[in-house]
Amino acid sequence: MFKLNLKIALRNLWRNRGITAINVGGLAIALAAFILVAMYFTYETSFDQTNPNYNNIYVVGRIEPDFKTNYTSPPLVKAIKLNFPEVENAGITKINHSLELAIKNGKNAIFTKNILQADYNAAKILDINPIGGLIQPSGDVERLTYLNVENVKTLFPGKKDNKPEMVSFGSSSSGITGTIAGAIVNNEHSNFSFDGVSIGNEIGKGENYGYNNYNTFIQVKPGTDVENLQNKITNLYRAELLKGETDVKTIEEIKGVSIFLDPLAHQHLRPKAGNDTPYKILIALSVLGVLILVIACINFTNLSIAQAAKRAKEVGIKKVMGAYRLQLTAQFLTEIFIQCLFATIMALVFAESALPYFNNLFQINLTIWHANNDLFWQLPLILCLITLIAGTYPALVLSGFKPALVLKGNFSTSKQSSWLRNGLLVFQFSIAVIFIIGLFIINAQLKYMRSEDLGFTANQVVYIKNISMFNKPEKFTPVRDKILKIPGIKSATVTTDIPDGAEGGANGYTFEGVQSSLDFIDVDFDYFETLDIKLKEGRFFSKSFSTDTANSAIINERTVAKYGMKNPVGKTIRGCNIDYKIVGVIKDFKAQGFESAVQPTIYAIKNPCGNYKTQIMLKIEENKMSDALAALKAQWPQINPQDGEDFRYEFLDELYGKLFKKQEQLQSVFFAAALLTIFIAILGLFAFAKYITNGRIKEIAVRKILGASDVQIFKLINSSFFIMVLAANVISWPVAYILTKKWLETFAYRIDLPVLPFVSSAIITILLTVITVSIQAKKAVRANPVDALKYE
Description:
3 domains; single chain; alpha+beta; 23 helices; ten-stranded mixed beta sheet
């Protein structure tokens, strides 16, 4: 029986090969998209899952009155280990992303940007295992430094063992040497990806609770009440901060500080102290993948039901011959399974072809054909699911025909089936409309982000990578003087942070008795001039004022608003045990992009609590850019001997442009999704219109004989489809409005929700529908009525 059913299935598929090709092709394209999305979802949600203690590791963070951060101080980890037996282990790490360190072995050199400093306990918690195993450093001074395998191969091309090697750091004239203890495999599928790692028994020794520059990790015992532990650590932290404190106001402020524990599982996509945009984009992408597959299944169902009349007599005869409904259902499900199987095979081919473009878009390295790929168990499950979803109802409809009716020849599809077909078609186009509207609004927001005034000028500004520290202005002055002698360079400055979206440090500042947290950026002369930042009142820092290097500060508009300042220039603001005199107020500028609001920020040349000034920025004339950069490269060993021959740079506008990367990815995804959904919907509409038109051939012939014009016939056939697409737009507009409004609310600076995308989506879908249906109607209109009526 199975062999017979299989033959019948193959014959029917071949006889209706046009519809079969549309069914299988549409499903294959949708399934290919779903496969890529499923692989990406698995990749993004499995960071660090190879860690054996994955479910018991937490990041310790702080909640201050004005902000939330993952940065803590070294004494906290000691206190946690000492006081809480439910904590199995605790350690700290530190990483500096802004400092590129040159490591050399003769002529072979690498530039490391992400050297992770970790104490031995943190290395165990985070499963950091060098080749040969994790070794505990001896004493408090020794640091064991490991480089990832790729860097070791670059420095020592012929190296086959894992013995320690001597290297030099910085320029060839620096004379600084050190030992690389061995190699380590860099797990790129981890939140702790690095060029190298430096492990010590203890890091941050001697630093007190004011040095919040570290990340603290704890590993708890299984079954620990994490919320209770979080409260206990908060009480401990407050008690530590209150030791020796007598100021009533400070005591009250400390009572408002708390600790949070954030699972390691949340760090990649939705950290408590961070941006959850990647998580939202992943959810949006996953929903898109599912919806595209649903649309393809709807196509499948619609077309299968539309062809029901062709199989009616076959069902009637089989039932008369004794076939049961269950047998017929199994037969039709077999046919549908065969189509789905072909679609799955084609989908793998399509997915493999599209994978290089997908990997390039998301900057990842996914592959279908590897042993641990979850697709090997997911695909059979998906195949069965889509067979059931797309095939159950058509199989039940086909197997449910009544023999007495269909063998008399007066069979017609039921109103219920007709209503379902139309409803599914409306649903299809509703999803397509949502994608079109989403694409238009994403494009509008990106256009706004690219054209909106940032408050500073990134063009023609060059960021010079540097390892020298210029915290004192007199140290940078000779370097600036040499740089400015090069033709085309208009200004030069050094700072702790460049406006590339990175978060700066924060500290407490008091103004007229009001204490609040401000971001702080330590700068040098010409910082604001180099970036063309606008002055609102007062002045910029100037060498003409000796106090500017001692206790002068410049604030932004948000700081003025935060404290409710009136006429702030000339007034005092206190922070880091210095009474700063406010000499100027600058206009707000979007240093951190469009998703985060401009933070209240204070700028000073002197800041004992600040970071190292290493970030050099130069303003260069456009027509002299290449000559200036060539001159800088040639003269850099004399200008900045510590860097020596290692001259490296990036353009600030390119660095800032990386802030748009996630939204550009979303734009590309929505563009592909909109094209796919429209293509699949039109594909189904084309076949559906063909079926409807063929079913009305005789009616059209009679109407033409009675004098109906071609335009009237076109109008007749298009009217029902026009109403369905119009209904799809009306249904989808509120949904699209809510979704796009929610997405826009993730931006601090955004466009107002425009009306044009909604109108445009209606015009596009209606035009595509009229064109698609008219192509099919054209054949019926041009047909000779005699051919349709000659058998009547």
